[in-house]
Amino acid sequence: MRAMGELGYVRDGAARALASRHSLTIGNVVPTLGIGIFAAGVAALQRRLEEFGYQLLVAASDYDEAKEARQVRALIERGVDGIALVGQRHMPEVYQLLRSRELPYVNTYQFDGRDPHPCIGFDNRIGTFNLTGYLIDLGHRDFGIVTAPPSLNDRIAARLTGILDCLDDRSIAPSARHVIEVAAQTIVEGRGATRALLTAHPDLTAIYCTTDTLAIGALRECQLLGLRVPEDVSVAGFSDLEIVSQLDPPLSTVHIPTDQIGTCIADFLIDRISGRTGPEKIELEAKIIIRQSTGPVRAAARFGRPRRVV
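Structure (tokenized):
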């Protein structure tokens, strides 16, 4: 060890991997590291992998499926022992490549028991369905929905489906729901969409956003318009980012179990690499978190109230 220190020796990982047929690395392709849930999941995955002596290689696809396919190929060329992907919608060549190399892989952040691929995640549709039902139980009948395009990814599509399914299930008229799609999942886009919704539909009593980032923008815009949250308008999101519990008022949302996802990914892939078997699909719970941004519909909201929209 003293000689290694004096010489600055670093073992040759490529040669070691060639001899052992294992690189002790895992690849993880996420849509972005600019959203806290993915950054937290990566951190949890890395912590767990380090317990087993594995390292993590991370790539961000920017929600671009073609870019994701190139990154998967690059990780395989690097010799990773397994790969974790986000969502279940990937280009066919990704699955073909993983199967041809017999490389352990798992889809994450979305659970679908009917999908043929291994997955670790939760039902995005159920999460929004349950929180929408809670809003209806509070008396809300006029809804604004702020969402990224469903074509962006399967998680957003499932969340939007959950909201609309619940409104249908509870006999909320189509004329009482107003959906606006935004170009990006940012606070600024959430603000702009909220202003547009309230300008066009001043009787809205609830705004549901398919991500917390959009909901933060919605909450802020309501306040700038002179509306009280939740007395005039209730606002809800999805993800449970760390910051949303510290807002004024704190945001009602659906909690994504990022730490649990990261830990389960590591255990799942290491088991497969080691030849151990286990369940191919692991469903986690996305709990609704009720905070002070949602409340019952007041009389003023039911019968109309002045809006200070400028």
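The longest strand covers residues 25-30. Confidence is low (pLDDT under 50) at residues 300-310.
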